[in-house]
Amino acid sequence: MAPKAKRTKRPRRAERVNGAGTLLIIGGREEKRGEMRILRDVAERVRRGRLVVTTVATEHPEEVWHEYHRLFKHLGVANVDHLDIDQRSDGFSDEHIRMIDRASGVFFTGGDQLRITAKMGGAPICEAMRGLLNRGGVIAGTSAGASVMSETMLVAGVSDASHRIDAVKMAPGLGFISGVLIDQHFAERGRLGRLVGSVAQNPRLLGIGIDENTSIAVSDSHFTVAGAGAVYVVDAMRESDTNISEQEAEHTMSIFDLRLHILADGDSFDLQQRRPKRG
Amino acid sequence: MAPKAKRTKRPRRAERVNGAGTLLIIGGREEKRGEMRILRDVAERVRRGRLVVTTVATEHPEEVWHEYHRLFKHLGVANVDHLDIDQRSDGFSDEHIRMIDRASGVFFTGGDQLRITAKMGGAPICEAMRGLLNRGGVIAGTSAGASVMSETMLVAGVSDASHRIDAVKMAPGLGFISGVLIDQHFAERGRLGRLVGSVAQNPRLLGIGIDENTSIAVSDSHFTVAGAGAVYVVDAMRESDTNISEQEAEHTMSIFDLRLHILADGDSFDLQQRRPKRG
Known about the structure:
CATH class of chain A: Alpha Beta
CATH topology of chain A: Rossmann fold
Strand order of the largest sheet of chain A: 3-2-4-5-1-10-11-15-16
Order of helices and strands of chain A: EHEHEHEHHEHEEEHEEEEEEEE
Radius of gyration of chain A: 18 Å
Number of helices of chain A: 7
CATH architecture of chain A: 3-Layer(aba) Sandwich
Structural class of chain A: alpha/beta
Helix content of chain A: 10-25%
Oligomer: homodimer
Strand content of chain A: 25-35%
CATH superfamily of chain A: Class I glutamine amidotransferase (GATase) domain
Distance between the termini of chain A: 23 Å
Largest sheet of chain A: 9 strands, mixed
Largest interface: A-B, 38 and 38 residues
Number of strands of chain A: 16
């Protein structure tokens, strides 16, 4: 056993979640009736604690809040609070920070990822969320709420098309996890092209594409897949070879020797070793 | 130079086109005004010879014939003939077989691939087409006309979704090329899932997904990409590992360690060595 025993605790690469908590990253359109496996997972992780639903991503915060409030109460969460951040000063308010400080979990709804980062990026409320992770809490996010989890996030890029070199937009995310780039509604919107196009720009990042009604639960440097769809991992680290820096922007990207893993319910992935494992 | 000199002429695997001719396999929706790069390529390969346009795939043969007739005349093809096969006996008619015998090229329009194979599979007209390839001619096909080129073809499977194990339908194709499985409208319809799902069933086949307005020209055991989009090559030969034979049919497929190449205009691919080359 000795040779395979654990090494130093420091990860070889940066792909790990801050702290001891769990990130639950959802590819959008999670089931909202019947089994509700993904939302039930969020609810069960929070148990008798408080769950904060943040609707900062959406233009319809009240509507979205009412729906998730109803669902999470139905799923047995004792206390569900609403955090809306309408202006940047809301991310500095003691009342809001206290809301996070006493929570066991935060749930980011969908909408527009730039609304999330523009309104709360760098604000003390983000530090409070990092604190939540450090004490073993859960941060969940669906759709836009999934994309913001990483250091760098995908903001825009055509779906259902191959990647043109200038076609993707990235921006700094909330940084709860580094070393990865997350895309959502993945197979449903044909987003392989834009994820590959992003990863090609810097293969340090591992591309993770999550289908609808599907999640990954990340803790420390592993994740596990749950739900109906698949999770695509695009790894350009070792052998890939691309024309992305040589060609004009409107040219279609060419990239060879990508490694692609398609994971389904129960499969897991080691982000440090970049290796999948069947569930 | 000696060590890399040619080996025996016999390919190590089956991926090669019959005969000395060229297959021009088009991902659908090739440009029909302006530069018309893909159709111009067909026209230039036929030069002063005869091009036979076959509309067997479509339910609107006259309409489709008139459009392509106009386009190929515009592009300078001296003689353009129409081959419609309405019933199986048409594939046995001497008149039709003579039409192929004197042609330099055949162009299969889009429609439904099963119409093509059900109406002409195994008929003498297919042998005549094989003869055309053997004497160095061109067989081109777009969309459904692209899919039928291979020994086994993809017939149906959901687009914009990850692959469920029972979700793909394959059928025997016309067999002008073996060892590959071709899909079209590839990025545009989000078809990675179904192509990977097909290749996983037998990694002997190399999966080739062709975007719209994009083609591959295959001769002997190489192909070259032309056009606006990308060509995806899915290789599960060496390291891949899947649950496809173990799981229930409605389960989402999981497959690890696929090799994925995304080729753009000018790139080429060696089907025997399974290696891409930048253009």
